[in-house]
Amino acid sequence: MRTLLRILSVILLVTALGWWWKAGSNKGWTKTSVQVWKYDEITEIKYPETVKRFVPGVDFVAGAAAASLGLAGVSLVFRKRNPTVG
Asked: Is 59 contained in some domain?
């Protein structure tokens, strides 16, 4: 049980870091909308447009790290199995 919890802890942390990196690796807070610059071909003016998109920030990574540490901490509650010599 100890080993399973520790493996799950590592998988959770690596998955969260990978998703954070793939989704934009925002070094600020998590965003639910992002400004994208558009170009109007007729007037030749650039203008900002808000697009709904989830971009995880460092708070997401910190939460995943805390959950991972919690799983690793729970693994310490369980005792080691003593192999019986027979």
From this structure: yes
**Tally of CB atoms within 10 A around 81:** 8
Distance CA 37, CA 55 (A): 17
Half-sphere exposure of 56 (CA within 13 A, CB side): 17
pLDDT in tens, 23-45: 888 888 989 898 999 999 999 89
Torsion of CA 6, 10, 15, 18, to 10 degrees: 180
Q: Determine contact, residues 75/1, Cβ cutoff 8 Å.
A: yes
Distances (CA, A) of 85 to 5, 80, 81, 82: 26, 15, 12, 9
**H and E: helices and strands count for the chain:** 2, 2
| Residue 82 maps to a domain | no
Domain that residue 39 falls in: 2-75
